[in-house]
Specification:
The chain is an all-alpha fold. The protein has a domain of 103 residues. It has 22 helices and two strands. The chain has a two-stranded antiparallel ribbon with strand order 1-2. Strand 1 and strand 2 form a beta hairpin. The longest helix is centred in the C-terminal third of the chain and has 27 residues. The radius of gyration is 22 Å and the shape is globular.
Length: 485
């Protein structure tokens, strides 16, 4: 076959097994809290994952170990899909008001770090369920491929191509070491250390340890699924400032951050993408703050805190709710609509289109403007001080075309399934961009997705998966071209 399905099964086996064992963490916690039924549900979920891993091992023992790029694309999509379906099992078993489609939506939202929720009355839910949602965001933030690269045998990895199947914006030139396993372990250590530091900061800001831990897992993953119905609204201002710092850090390229920590201290500021992301945040936040002061009568501190928080929350695709920005002045609402799909930097936990793609497009636009005036002038677009290759230009164009196609199809399907046009369009954008809050009349920042019908839940779950894998891997797996010579 063109795709070696036995090899894909062999790659899936250890990843699914370890993911299943992670389900024992909330199971043990549930026992300690006296949540016996929830503990049983998580145990069943872990057992299902282990049984699936055993089946995959049985069918893949004779697998040919020559890894191709097609195999890696199928492996990545299959791994994410398997984990979404498995993670939904305990949510479905423990929550009486959630059907399996709703549970799949919830697990897809958590693992893709989108932040939209199909669960209402979070304050009254079992703590083990809330912990599981936060853990899923933490796993999804770093990505299963990075975790797999740290766990799988080196001869099965397929080199840096493995990273590119999960993020088409991965920059192989930014790698820290020549050994992919060492690089993956370094990323995991940085990610875990950030979560520990964020938890400690939240405790200092006034949260109890359980809420601080859950909030930290949501923040560093830029997931945004707080274990509270009010999200960030009823928490102290100190918590908001802590969240801003760690949301922003989660939006920066991991490799650039690690290079800076390793001794190249100015590497962060030298990166054109990082500078662009900082400028966009400051510019949009400044406009929002001014509009809140003059149009909504906010005092300076509240305007700065709320305006900057929501700007970082949307641009980082975290999606934390702090007030309903659709109820502010029309100008501020328009600004958030404009930045809804932008996202953070490539190589970060953020979703969205990514700043570097917009910068590449802008560089090409400026070059073409110059050539329109001087057709014979030899000039080419640059990014980060280097000429932009034709391969990168093709990749950016392919991403944008895929994004628009999926956005139009998803919006049309949502309208056919009963959503209003504003809800359908903004919900499709926020799902494909892994942001969280929509901007329609029924699905605004202060609303949830609990009342949608099962088909809409499955449609948006697909959008979130496609957005998290940056469109191309999912589209490839749906095209006959991948499966034939």
């Amino acid at each position: 076959m063109v795709v070696n399905l036995q090899l894909v099964a062999r790659l899936l086996c250890p990843s699914v097994f370890w993911f299943g064992l992670c389900g024992l963490i909330p199971a043990i916690y549930a026992l300690g809290c006296g949540e016996n039924f929830e503990s049983l549900a998580f145990g069943i979920s872990a057992l299902c994952a282990v049984l699936l891993a055993g089946l995959l091992y049985r069918v893949s023992r004779q697998a040919r170990l020559a890894v191709t790029l097609r195999d890696l694309f199928v492996f990545t999509v299959s791994l994410w899909l398997s984990c979404i379906l498995l993670a939904a099992i305990p949510l479905w078993l423990t929550l009486d008001d959630l059907n399996y489609a709703g549970a799949v939506f919830e697990s897809a939202s958590a693992l893709s770090c989108t932040g939209a929720t199909a669960i209402s009355q979070l304050d009254s839910r079992a703590q083990s369920v809330l912990l599981w949602r936060s853990m899923l965001q933490f796993f999804g933030g770093i990505g299963f491929v990075v975790a797999g690269a740290a766990l799988l045998p080196s001869f099965l990895l397929g080199g840096l191509n493995l990273f590119k199947t999960e993020s088409s914006s991965f920059d192989g030139q930014a790698k820290l070491t020549a050994h992919i396993k060492t690089m993956a372990i370094g990323l995991l250590l940085w990610y875990a250390a950030t979560a520990v530091l964020c938890t400690f900061c939240y405790i200092l800001a006034g949260l109890d340890w359980f809420l601080a831990l859950n909030a930290a897992l949501c923040t560093v993953a830029t997931g945004g699924m707080m274990p509270l119905d009010s999200s960030m609204n009823d928490l102290p201002p100190a918590v908001h400032y802590c969240a801003m710092v760690f949301m922003f850090l989660g939006s920066l390229p991991f490799f650039v951050l690690l290079a800076s920590i390793s001794g190249n201290y100015l590497q962060v500021w030298r990166d054109e993408q990082v500078r662009g992301f900082i400028k966009i945040n400051l510019f949009i936040a400044l406009l929002v703050i001014i509009s809140l002061i003059f149009s909504n009568g906010y005092d300076l501190e509240r305007a700065v805190r709320v305006g900057l928080f929501n700007t970082i929350s949307i641009l980082s695709t975290t999606g934390f709710a702090l007030e309903d920005f659709t109820l502010w002045n029309p100008f501020a609402t328009f600004l958030f609509l404009v930045i809804l799909a932008v996202g953070g930097c490539s190589g970060s936990t953020s979703g969205g289109i990514k700043v570097f793609r917009l910068q590449v497009c802008y560089a090409m636009f400026k070059t073409q403007l110059t050539k329109a005036l001087h057709p014979h002038q030899l000039i080419e677009p640059h990014f980060n001080g280097q000429p932009i290759s034709s391969a990168l230009i093709r990749a950016v164009i392919m991403y944008f075309v895929g994004y628009v196609i999926l956005l139009l199809i998803s919006s049309a399907c949502a309208v056919l399934l009963g959503l209003s046009l504003p809800d359908s369009f903004t919900a499709s954008i926020t799902m494909l961009s892994n942001v969280g809050p929509a901007m329609g009349p029924d699905l605004g920042p202060s609303a949830n997705f609990a009342d949608l019908n099962p088909l809409l839940h499955l449609l948006f779950a697909f959008d979130m998966l496609a957005g998290r894998l940056e469109i191309i891997p999912v589209l490839l797996c749906l095209t006959p071209r991948l499966w034939r010579l």
